[in-house]
Amino acid sequence: NGRPRYGSASPELRYVTMVYLPELQALIEENREAHVQASSAAEWMRAQQAVAFLIQAEEVLRAAIEGSDQPVHDRVLADNVAHALELAGDAGRVMVWTDLARSSGGMGAQLHERFGADVVRIGLTFANGTDIARRGELAAPEARSFRSLCGSTPPARAWIDLRELPKDGVVSEWFGALRAKLDALVFFETVSAAAR
User: Is residue 126 within 8 Å of residue 192, measured between CB atoms?
Assistant: First the structure.
């Protein structure tokens, strides 16, 4: 419920929040050595990231109030994945589970721009069952769609590496729009929502 609460705050309070959070971040950066001596490098890093999250929240809420939240939200998510990778180190890996629109566009595209081939964008699709996000029955797939094609032919599960498909021809044309946004597809004939 952050958006209505932040939206109902006075313009002065929103302005002060926007201005002073980056100043707090700069203060934490300037006092790194003293902070580390008084606690630890890990504690300083937690403080730094906590303020970074507050700045991100303010940016997303401000953009939502202004009606332009999607690009900001996707950038913030990409920033957080990049931060997680930094914490994981050279051998680290990060897996992000999100909706197809976000992985194939917005955040996924930004991560692909930053990390290139090190990012593998995988789309999950299915022919029938329960919509995982909305927990409702799915409508039948449109004729000639990917869901319809996979649902009418075995196997019940498939992994399709779009990077390995031919560069031209019917298959390339059929997957053309998808391969511009995704690197691979995982297909399940039937899915159901996770048990709670």
Answer: no
